[in-house]
Amino acid sequence: MTDNERMFARAIAPGMVTFPPGIQTKRFARDMAFVAEHKPGCELSPKQALYLRQVVVRYRRQIPADIVAAARRELAELEAAAT
């Protein structure tokens, strides 16, 4: 994980963000927060990296604006590289 990915994972951790009940995103957020805390050298797959940034943007009202801005910037770069 990069430093920004660890920051994103901590920002969407359950307890920091409120998720609707029964949504798979909550499990993803919990798993990413665990990886950020306990396995910081672990690499994310391209799909995980993309989804992590999408989740930060989706829950932007519950996350500090500077983190959301960084996620949007990186999300735009990833989407531009994919096309």
Pick out the low-confidence regions.
none
Order of helices and strands: HHHH
Number of DSSP strand runs: 0
The number of distinct structural domains comes to 1
Kindly report the average pLDDT value: 93
Strand content: under 5%
Give me the secondary-structure category: mainly alpha
Question: How is this structure best described in words?
Answer:
By secondary structure, the protein is mainly α. It has one domain (3-82). It is 66% helix and 0% strand. The chain has helices spanning 3-11, 24-38, 46-58, 65-82. The chain is globular and about 35 Å long.
Give a summary of the structure in a few sentences.
The chain has 83 residues and is mainly alpha-helical. It has 4 helices and no strands.
Structural topology:
Blueprint: H1 3-11, H2 24-38, H3 46-58, H4 65-82
List keywords for this structure.
83 residues, mainly alpha, 4 helices
